[in-house]
Amino acid sequence: MKDNLVRILIALLLLAAGAWLVSATEWADTANPTPARGEAATNQFYLAQKLLRELGAKVVKRQALDHLPPKEARLVLLSQRWDLFPDRAGRLREWVEQGGHLVIPDYIFDEHKSLKDWLPIKANYYAIPKPGPKPAQAPGSRAALLKDENCRSLTEPESLPASYDGVRSFRVCFEPGRRQFTPIGKTQALWSVQSPAGIEMLRVPVGRGTVTVINYVGALNNFNLLRADNPLLVATALQARSGAEFWFVVEEAREPFLRWLWHNGQAAILLGLLALAFALWRAGVRFGPLIASAGTQRRSMAEQVRGTAEFLHIHGGDALHAAQVRALDESAQRHLHRHAIGDAERLTAAIAQATGLDARALSEAMALRKRGPGALAADLELLETALRRLDANAIPHASTSH
């Protein structure tokens, strides 16, 4: 019996705690946005491009306006530096006049005088009205308030055909801009949407093409595109059609210089690298000669006679004598100690001592004087004998006498 009372008491306590928990808490759904992944994390216009693809259009993303789209295509120009090169403005105008459809945000129209010169559109600034007081937040309505933030209505004028049957009003959710647009002169608008402050988006004809100015690029970004009637308004502003081609130029970017150089000059770079490698190989240090060195061989007697005769014929006997004396002097410098600082007499004595020849005869043979053919031959023979003996003996430390 006592155990049953304990069980009943515990059950009552649990029941009371549950009742208090229900009365003291509130359960509500909370919207937690999922972080973007993949291409959506890096491309702020991913949803707009996906919407166009789902409608059957072709989307081309470009990093520069180097080339213009085909005729009848749609060019969504969002890059502030699209006219980096002066010829682009003229080419863009020609493209529109020949049938292209250009879509630009208001800041592009305002910041580029090259567009104002030929677009029949005028922009007026106005002050954005301050938002009224927000309604009191009812319990459980926070998610709904965040979802409806910055929302308002834009309508198509009655004077123009409605984009959708029976629908002229769009409930859009994005910040309003500070500009309203009007056509200039006799230009008639092809399409427009307006708020009480004025026209926020406008399309006018230019030649065989069209130009559409949208008030705020925020309507295209991933955060706002799926809110309220934003997808309908974007499809209308971009003239989305099945089979149409859309070019998005969001920024003026260039390929890194080294990568661009490789893509445009691979052949020249490869040839230059091969030439550099060949030059370094030619100038490099080698481990040995390219070919084996030829052995030192003496000339034959016939070659010696012919060479001597040719030398005598060209230079004369005195030159041959001087060459023979110079050869003997160079041999003495290699083999006789202190020869370089000795005088002629000491030189003769040192050579005579090293070779065993008569010093007086050697001195007369080395002297510069006029000789007859017989005397020249005898002196040359004596000098050659001294040279050969000196080289054969190879006495490196023979000293001169004092």
From TrEMBL:
InterPro entries: DUF4350
Any single Pfam family the record assigns to this protein: DUF4350
Residue intervals of the DUF4350 domain: 43-233
Domain of life of the native organism: Bacteria
Protein name per the record: DUF4350 domain-containing protein
Top-level taxonomy: Bacteria, Pseudomonadati, Pseudomonadota, Betaproteobacteria, Burkholderiales
